[in-house]
Write a structure and sequence with these properties.
With about 725 residues, this protein is an alpha+beta fold. Among the domains are: about 90 residues, Herpes Virus-1, CATH 3.30.40.10; about 80 residues, no CATH class; about 230 residues, Hect, E3 ligase catalytic domain fold; about 110 residues, 2-Layer Sandwich (Hect, E3 ligase catalytic fold), CATH 3.30.2410. It has a 5-stranded mixed sheet. Strands 1-2 form a two-stranded antiparallel sheet. The protein has a two-stranded antiparallel sheet with strand order 3-4. Helix 11 packs across helix 24 and helix 27 packs across helix 28. About 30% of the residues are buried.
Length: about 725
């Protein structure tokens, strides 16, 4: 700088340092502003900020003759404004010595002896308080580096903090940080040498500073986005509309990627759900009513609810129960009621009479049934990832685990490929059976093996066990991967997870509190019970001494000085044995479940997936089987009588008046003994033909039924075909 001779570039202290090549000048703005022998005689854009170049050179020549009273060097361009004071100094030297420079009016400067000071009472001095800008401690003393607010009694600041604040806020926003007073506060700060620039705040001057706030977050953060046009694709009023997290707003999802049917549904991101889980305030999603979820095509049910006073049918006339429905009667007796048929495909959906439903079915079963219906839609969304490229697995039913492991680890295996299963020890299976029934049989056998494998422990419900060799061989990952693939490819669910295991997967192990029922080891359970039910301090201490080695190995050893210590000790043991001991297998198992995005959907819809992961498939009933099939029919009276025979036959099978079971019927048609969570593809249908015996077409999941004159012939032919077909397959 030509005035102070320093090279430092510190805008906060000395003002902006600029070099003007055309004038061969480098100068600090504050040095120029506070020099005593120069004035702004030019226009704003003339010279350097209104200071003419000739005036600047004259001032430099004048200052070159004056010695600084602080550093003793030439170039002291600033003098104390007090008439009798002859001190001169450079601007940076004055700052170091504690001089005051007033950036207002005549731009006066005061030396360290004549500078203005704040008037403080004796009570206001002494002690420390917090600077309301940097929040560090500040001494309440009349010092150069400390300033007190003129409008607030207990507001103290560091001078440097105030100067930084003033430069950032500008004259329009610089005010007391405690009471927001501007006029009185600015006047005092200017008097005490704080420079307040006459410009807008720095955050207002930044170009597009608030651009991010004007844009809504539009990005799908689901691990496996289903949108083919990318995660940033957003189409309002469609399934590709992006919904933001209702809690943080910083995460989003396509409606389809989270299986949401409308914008009105609430959605929280995984991070927010974890926070709620930790705080114990996790909010469950509201579920659609059963009536809503049943309406898939906008039509109403074809069968009306019978009168509650309708007489109960006798066992001998069960096959006539459908004739009580006025809709069916209307179809049989007269043609004007034919709108009951679907005009486009000539298909008719048949439902069982409410008389066939179990009147004692619990509310819990109905709730589970509704959840399973909803989880089917979620899994169908995941199934969109499956392509037409096929991967064939050669499976040995007698060694299901090793052959499955070999198939899943083969080089060309991909979870997104269509899977075909060929059993190595099966000679009589057709090509159709290979692509449908054999695949379900494979997954069914695989789930049974996993349930009884050393990877899990427990009786009816299972937790993960700790098998060091399995961890080393990465078998927990493969098990999780197999379960995920089974769910998406139409296989059965595991159905044996304990609530603790499921919650660990969904909410994280750190948010789960295990129970005594989760302990499969008899000796460990016995130890926990002895501690839990100890009725005196001496018996508790005795039990702890007896279990010293076990507690020490588990890291649960703690001093016991009160009987209530047993609760903490029990929780420590449970947490170690059920969760902490298996953290490594759990992490590996979780990674496997992430295959095809299954774990992410579990975390998004915990209630839905709990119904299939922690509960066995619902036992088949006549109503469930009947609702499962769509009957292709016409107004032909004989074919409608065949439909009546079919439903009456289901009623006989359910009541035990048949040699086959409802599971046998399902296997006969689809190759599956239960309804997979994702449902059947294609959906099961029934067709009537003039043939001798019924045929189960597993390629299309179609049951082809014969048209008979009497119910007895229909029943005999059904049982003959089903029993003989299954007997041949089981050989």
């Amino acid at each position: 700088c030509v005035l102070c001779g320093r090279t430092e570039d510190c805008p906060e202290k000395y003002g902006e340092k600029k070099t003007y090549v055309e004038y061969d000048l480098t100068v600090h703005y504050y040095c120029l502003l506070m020099s005593s022998g120069i004035w702004q005689r030019g226009e704003e854009g003339e010279g350097i900020d209104g200071f003419l170049i000739t005036d600047i050179r004259k001032e430099v020549n004048r200052a070159a003759k004056l010695k600084c009273n602080i550093c003793k060097r030439k170039g002291a361009s600033i003098g104390c404004v007090v008439p009798k004071c002859k001190r001169g100094y450079h601007f940076p030297c004055g700052i170091q010595k504690g001089c005051i420079f007033q950036f207002m009016e005549d731009f006066r400067s005061y030396c360290w002896e004549h500078k203005p000071v704040q008037k403080l009472t004796h009570n206001e001095c002494g002690g420390t308080s917090q600077c309301t800008i940097c929040l560090d401690l500040v001494e309440q003393l009349p010092m150069y580096g400390v300033l007190k607010s003129p409008c607030c009694k207990n507001a103290w600041f560091h001078r440097d903090c105030l100067q930084y604040q003033a430069l950032s806020a500008g004259i329009f926003f610089f005010r007391c940080t405690v009471c927001n007073n501007m006029e009185k506060f600015q006047k005092e700060m200017l008097r005490m040498g704080i420079h307040i620039p006459e410009r807008d705040a720095s955050w207002e001057l930044e170009e597009n500073a608030y651009q991010d706030l004007l844009q809504c977050y539009q990005h799908c953060d689901i691990r496996r986005c289903l949108c083919k046009k990318g995660r940033d694709y957003h189409e309002p009023d469609s399934k590709w509309e992006i919904k933001r997290c209702q809690c943080c707003g910083s995460r989003g999802t396509h409606l389809a990627c989270s299986s949401m049917k409308s914008w009105e549904q609430n959605w929280e991101c995984l991070e927010c759900r974890n926070i709620f889980a930790k705080s114990g305030r996790y909010r469950k999603r509201s579920k659609c009513s059963l009536a809503t979820s049943d309406k898939t095509d906008g039509t109403t049910s074809l069968l009306e609810e019978p009168s509650p006073k309708c007489p109960r049918q006798s066992p001998g006339s069960q096959h006539n129960f459908l004739l009580q429905s006025p809709k069916i009667l209307c179809q049989i007796n007269s043609s004007p009621c034919l709108p009951i048929e679907h005009p486009a495909s000539n298909r008719m959906t048949m439902s069982l009479s409410p008389l066939m439903s179990n009147s004692n079915c619990s509310q819990r079963k109905n709730h589970l049934r509704m959840q399973r219906r909803e989880v089917s839609n979620v899994l169908k969304e995941l199934k969109l990832q499956i392509n037409t490229k096929t991967t064939r697995l050669n499976i040995n039913a007698e060694n299901i685990w090793h052959s499955a492991l070999k198939g899943f680890r083969q080089r060309n295996f991909s979870p997104t490929n269509t899977i075909e299963v060929m059993f190595a020890n099966s000679k009589n299976r057709s090509k159709a059976d290979t692509s449908t029934a054999s695949k379900y049989r494979f997954f069914h056998l695989l789930m049974l093996h996993l349930q009884n494998s050393p990877l899990f422990e427990g009786s009816s419900v299972k937790n993960l066990s700790f098998d060091f060799q399995a961890v080393k061989d990465n078998l927990y990952f493969e098990a999780g991967k197999m379960i995920a693939v089974s769910l998406v490819h139409g296989g059965p669910p595991p159905g044996f997870f304990s609530k603790t295991l499921f919650n660990c997967l969904v909410y994280g192990p750190e948010n789960v509190k295990p129970a005594l029922e989760d302990v499969a080891d008899v000796d460990v359970a016995k130890t926990i019970k002895m501690i839990k039910y100890a009725n005196s301090l001496s018996s508790l201490q005795s039990t702890v001494r007896d279990c010293y080695e076990f507690l020490a190995a588990a890291g649960c050893l703690r001093p016991v000085t009160d009987l209530c210590d047993k609760d903490v000790l029990v929780n420590d043991i449970l947490s170690h044995h059920v969760i902490k001991r298996i953290l490594s297998p759990l992490e590996s198992f979780s990674q496997g479940l992430r295959t095809l995005g299954v774990l992410e959907k579990m975390q998004m819809h915990p209630d839905l997936f709990s119904s299939i992961m922690c509960h066995k498939p619902e036992r088949l009933s006549a109503k469930i089987v009947c609702d499962l099939f769509t009957i292709h029919s016409s107004s032909n009276v004989k074919k409608c009588e065949g439909a009546n025979f079919w439903m009456a036959y289901l009623q006989d099978v359910e009541s035990g008046e048949s040699l086959v079971t409802l599971e046998d019927i399902l296997v006969f048609v689809t190759g599956s003994s239960s309804i997979p969570p994702i449902g059947f593809d294609p959906e099961p249908t029934i067709k009537f033909f003039d043939r001798s015996y019924p045929v189960g077409n597993r390629l299309f999941n179609c049951l082809e039924l014969p048209i008979t004159r009497t119910y007895e012939k229909f029943k005999n032919k059904m049982e003959f075909s089903i029993r003989n077909t299954l007997r041949l397959e089981n050989k």
